[in-house]
Write a structure and sequence with these properties.
Elements (H helix, E strand, L loop, with lengths): L2 H9 L3 H23 L2 H18 L9 H22 L21 H20 L2 H12 L4 H8 L3 H21 L18
Helix pairs in contact: 1-2, 2-3, 2-4, 2-6, 3-4, 4-7, 5-8, 6-8, 7-8
Length: 197
């Protein structure tokens, strides 16, 4: 079923189509939210809120080709709202959680998994140190993989502005990773774009 038919069936109240749409989009939505918030529990809470908003506003997106940028705008706005609410309340105490280890499998070794997870965490920590606009550009362009035109649409700026911001944002991200000990000569893992995928 193509995107147009899926969206039409969702608008008509087809529960199976809605479930299919949620499954199709939930990974991308959660990855984008996590990029903004950097917290797994908050990511899940905001994702639920976003899918409620999506369900209520589905009639507003009449062009299936524009669904991706339209959804990215909803995610961005929900994250910015959440960040404003977060600033208004006192900081919480982070409690370290013991990580579960799985039994031996054909997948990556524990060392390889640790390395990948460490790289991912390093990039996400570095993202939190970026200016808001640079973090958004990296999230939309490099992590979500949106084309420049769609990033420009979501951020409501010209494409040329996005191009220059992408370049500056990548430099700022590299500097943040190095400052966290992840660059050349640092003790942390080397940065890589797949660390956030």
């Amino acid at each position: 079923m193509d995107q147009t038919e899926l969206l039409n069936r969702c608008r008509q109240g087809d529960e199976l189509a809605w479930e299919m749409l949620v499954r199709q989009q939930q990974g991308r939505v959660c990855a984008m939210i996590y990029g903004y918030l950097g917290d797994r529990d908050e990511t899940l809470d905001v994702a639920q809120e976003i899918f409620v908003r999506l369900y209520r506003k589905l009639d507003q997106c009449t062009d299936a080709a524009r669904f991706g940028p339209w959804l990215a705008s909803i995610v961005r706005n929900a994250c910015l709202d959440h960040l404003r609410r977060r600033k208004a309340r006192p900081p919480r105490q982070d409690i370290p959680a013991a990580e579960m280890t799985s039994l031996a499998s054909a997948g990556p070794t524990p060392e390889e998994q640790w390395y990948r997870t460490s790289r991912r965490r390093l990039v996400h920590r570095a993202l939190q140190d970026l200016s808001e606009i640079n973090r958004e550009v990296i999230l939309l362009k490099d992590i979500q993989g949106l084309p420049l035109e769609q990033v420009a649409e979501v951020l409501e700026v010209p494409v040329g502005t996005v191009k220059s911001r992408v370049s500056r944002a990548r430099v700022e991200l590299a500097q943040a990773i190095i400052a966290l000990g992840g660059g050349p000569g640092g003790s942390g893992p080397a940065p890589a774009t797949e660390a956030v995928s």
